């Protein structure tokens, strides 16, 4: 068994989609990014790559590379799942936290869990997503940024 931890942060800006866990969350702002900026999926990708000893998201999908311009978190996660499988690992569990001041994520948590579970070939019981606010502190608390942490467990097949 191997564990991996991932973290990501994106600034929030007007006129961009807010993608979290491969789900579009209705809001006036979204992540500033070269890709779609899906903060939770990026943290999850880093956790998976870390657990497999495969570097990080920037190693596999360099932010300046035109190939990844506007790339969806879903596409990058599918590619990452391929990297993990080729190394002989299977993902067994995901736990995660998203920190966002607004909007409330509770209505979207279930669909995020289903979508991420489907992409990683897991059951929804093995993928958890928790939502927190920053209690108004700092840039995240002011609604100018979003953060996510993800923890994964891999098993050698
Ligand atoms: Mg990112």
Biggest pleated-sheet summary:
5 strands, mixed
Instruction: Give the CATH H-level superfamily.
Output: 2-C-methyl-D-erythritol 2,4-cyclodiphosphate synthase
Structural class: alpha+beta
CATH architecture annotation: 2-Layer Sandwich
Bound molecules: magnesium ion
In a nutshell, what does this entry contain?
The chain has helices at 39-51, 57-60, 73-86, 106-119, 138-141; strands at residues 2-14, 18-20, 23-25, 29-31, 89-99, 127-132, 145-156. The chain has 157 residues and is of the alpha+beta class. The chain has one domain (2-156): 2-Layer Sandwich (60s Ribosomal Protein L30, Chain: A).
Features of the shown structure:
5 helices, 60s Ribosomal Protein L30, Chain: A, 31% helix, 157 residues, binds magnesium ion, globular, alpha+beta, five-stranded mixed beta sheet, two-stranded antiparallel sheet
Could you characterize the architecture of this molecule?
Helix content is 31%, strand content 32%. Helix 1 (39-51) runs parallel beside helix 3 (73-86). Helix 4 links the parallel strand 5 and strand 6. It is built from 5 helices and 7 strands, in the order E-E-E-E-H-H-H-E-H-E-H-E. The strands form 2 sheets. Strands 4-1-7-5-6 form a 5-stranded mixed β-sheet. It has a two-stranded antiparallel ribbon with strand order 2-3. It has a single domain (2-156), classed as 2-C-methyl-D-erythritol 2,4-cyclodiphosphate synthase (60s Ribosomal Protein L30, Chain: A). The termini are close together. The protein has helices spanning 39-51, 57-60, 73-86, 106-119, 138-141, and strands at 2-14, 18-20, 23-25, 29-31, 89-99, 127-132, 145-156. It is α+β, with helices and mostly antiparallel strands. It is globular and about 45 Å long. Magnesium ion binds next to strand 1 and helix 1.
